[in-house]
Input
Amino acid sequence: MTALEQYLESIRGKRIAVIGAGVSNTPLIALLRTAGLPVTVHDKKDTEALGARYTELAGLGVSFALGQDYLDYLDEDIIFRTPGLYPEHPALREVRARGGVVTSEMELFFAVCPCPIVAVTGSDGKTTTTTLVYEFLKHAGHTCHLGGNIGKPLLPEVDSIQPDDIAVVELSSFQLMGMQCSPAVSAITNLTPNHLDYHKDFAEYVQAKTAIYTHQTQGSRIVINLDDEVTQSLTLNPNCEVWGCTKNDIPQTGVYLQDNVIYIVQNGLSRALMSADHIRIPGAHNVSNVMMAAAIVQGYCTDRDIIEVAHTFGGVEHRIEFVREFEGVKYYNDSIASSPTRTIAGLLSFPQKVILIAGGYDKHIPYDVLGEPICQHVSKLILTGATAVKIRACVEECSNPIKPDIIDTPNLSAAVRAAYSVAQPGEIVILSPASASFDCFKNFMERGNAFKEFVNAL
Output
């Protein structure tokens, strides 16, 4: 009997709730129902709003608690929390107070996965780093499973995963908050203010991220960015072997950059890995991502595996993704940039000033750090969305006397048209919003795809 089968058998006779009827929870619901377990789906949307999803789930034989009071009847024994629901919501506190169990699809996957798990989190760069790890491992001949905050839910596939495989997962602070499991290898790319519309403050956000290594056992590894003020000051789990990544020093164990060459140091001995110039994806931040990924896969891959992938890896969609060149102007999609630090990294990836399209949903994070980089690296700033006012203010209040022209637009389509109207041959237009997408789009992927459609329609 597999670990998953044992778990499903152990909860037989319990009443189960799954909060959220979204795409990511459907495989979990189907798995539980296939095992013959009773499931009630709690969702804020009503039957009409759920539409085809309601029909699909009803066909699985689930019960429903729908509408604005969907959490008022949370009396089941086991609650699978959707990552978007704050773990300390009063309804969940009541569940725990009466002895109920609050868990998640990701936490269950960690508990029953038969193979080593490699997990990456952070504020910026985690998707590229996770994807690089996956590609390094595949190149080395490992059977890998990519999921978490990237790709697809892995729990429904856990019975097909073999002990010698490797699961590679990206984890958000939403998924990590409250988790009681940790991977064999964990990594934190950096930590800057983010998702403060969800977390009560930055300290809680950082605390959520540290759950990635809190429960690691003897012999596990944590990889941290020593150039980031927050990550390099974290109190780490003493069970972990610590690997540091830095461009400014030589760590005791880890990966570092010196004279534009990436080195790996272990047991007091350094060896050259590759020139940073040979990394295909542009930007200094992607050098850091390659360094982090190289540290993560030590013991699983050869240096040759890392080098060959880094030479050919073209990047992840929506991350400084080249869209097209039209009338001598190059257009790039960096929709993943949902924070100021990520947008700054995008601006620094180009040797010339760019035309920047920015703005979107307000996560209540500070924007003051964005003023000087925009003044230095942006010729024209095109704003849209709820954060347009904040971004304009940080530029206008910047002490740099050289400021870009600023154009306000009502939506992304108009922003693209405005960029086209002012761009000259040889210039670069980049969508790098420094903001989340939820004001107009479901997620950054939908926003990036819309941008590409608008650009390709010029």
Q: What stands out?
A: The first helix runs from residue 3 to 10. The chain has a mean pLDDT of 93. The chain has 16 helices and 20 strands. The radius of gyration is 23 Å.
